[in-house]
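Obj.: predict assembly geometry.
Materials: sequence records (below).
Method: joint structure prediction, all chains together.
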Amino acid sequence: MANISRRKFIQMAGAGGLLAGFPYAASWGSQPKARVVIVGGGTGGAIAARYVKALDPSIDVTIVEANPRYTTCFMSNWVLAEMRDLDSLTHGYENVIARGINVIIDPATTIDTEGQKVLTQGGQSIPYDRVIVAPGIDFQWDAIEGYDAAAAEIVPHAWKAGPQTELLQNQIRAMDDGGVVAIVAPPNPFRCPPGPYERAALIAYYLRRHKPKSKIVIYDAKDAFSKQGLFQAGWARHYPGMIEWVGGFAGGKIERVDVAARTLYSEFDDFEADVLNIIPPQTAGRVAINSGLTDASGWCPVDFRDLQSTLARNVHVIGDAMVSSALPKSGYIAASTAKVAAVAVVDHLNGREPGTPAFFNTCYSLLTPQHSISVSGVYEAGTNAEGQPAILPVGNSVAVSPAGADDSFQAREARYAASWYDNLVDQGFG
Amino acid sequence: MRKKLLTATALTGLLMFAPGASADAPVSGALLAFQCAGCHGFNGHSVGPATPSLAGFPEEYFVETMMAYKEGTRHATIMDRVSWGYTREQFEAMAEFFAAQPYLPARQDFDAELAERGAAIHDQHCNSCHSEGGTFPEPDTAPIAGQWAPYLRDSFEDFLVHDRPQPRGMQRRLSALSADEIEALVQYYASQQDPAAYAH
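Observations (raw structure tokens):
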């Protein structure tokens, strides 16, 4: 029996060796079969590029991206806790280019979906057969009165990582002990649903060590939030009395801000703070809006089977910019949808009908460097109770960490969080 | 029979994208497996030290592991929850994909002196089932050599503390080892980094 199994493995190893990674037949030719352009070289865009190229190397793949280096928004709360620096979250395109993927650093302004061209700020016009749109989010400036792009230079959102993260960190570092940090959490849907609450914990982790008399208040437009029970139990355990959450029902919805006076206004009250962090309401990235890919919700409607826009032909939208669905706007879902779109695009370009999609999410949030909580879920395309196409959770698979987990369990989840980051990023940038 | 089918698939690559696949068809094993990559690495080659590589896992071992998570017989933080969203048939489809990927040992630092000690412990206690220094993918085990050291430590903890199912003989041998001896085993497995050692 053992010998038979060994012989089979010899055959298998041979097959694996020949095909070096992907078990697909590859057609190599001098002429590209088709041109796939990817708008946005973030997590979703970089991963979509890698999978398209790996699935069919004869396709010419080009990423159009605004910045020469990309800083992941996920894990940027770790910077506030002084666990990581921004450099460790910042990734260049060297490995992407080495895989035979073209990278154009020039912001895409519009996608001409009739002419099938991506237009850039630098005046380039890049033709495509299929485009994958992965622009992430943009902000609804002035949805909170007084909070616009200029105000964000004084009061950071820190919801796109980089200089904004540094600005917030510097303000917290400069704050006196006993000060108040106010976080304004946005209404649904928004990027990284557990993010504001992890941020509170990791700012508290810093404050507890350096400015232990300080407080954090979260003013929330919502009445409930992601992993709420676990977050609130974790805050109480690790940072007793430090973090206060004011839900929408309790007057937490902020309508206006006076940036100079660092004062927030709800319908009935006003709140002063020493450091303000306003995470405003969001929409799909600007290029999606400019290209007519968004609906009244501000997000991009898609056919959930292959993530093709319902508003334009040969356009697929992935990640945060996709219309709100059961899928959270997480880094993992950016990757998950990138793969669904990549497989579908390669199928379409090879004259095949795309198969059934599969979606999966995992997301870790830290309460301390040794205590992480997670949510994961398996999703499928289907039909909702109203008979509309929808993405639905499979069975009871969408679930968070158990409430009664012990220290060893929580520490292991923290180790998994770091490895989650390594592997998630490596898929696109490794 | 399954193994023959797998070999054919890996060689021709035809099965994955059979023309005429419809939305009602089962999800391809490849797309299911792609979804694991965010934690277990591109094509199952993990670059994160807490999560195992799945590339080269024997199909039987992969499916039985996922079913153990689903049935609650194996300790988990998250894999039990993940397993609830899939069927045995889907695990079989994923298993086919991962089994067809070459196993690549993790590149990591190790303590050569401890590794040498670990080699002797392995030969004495472990090699009869985890043959060829733990590099051989027996149908009912994954290769243990070449995995990340932090993952290996967690795995030993699962066997010793969290009642991860194991043969009685293994339990007896493992519980007789000291913490230092177990760390020596971890260092030995981590030290085996030559990909050629895994090309059986």
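Conclusions so far: Chain A has ten helices and 25 strands.
To do: check interface contacts against the pulldown list.
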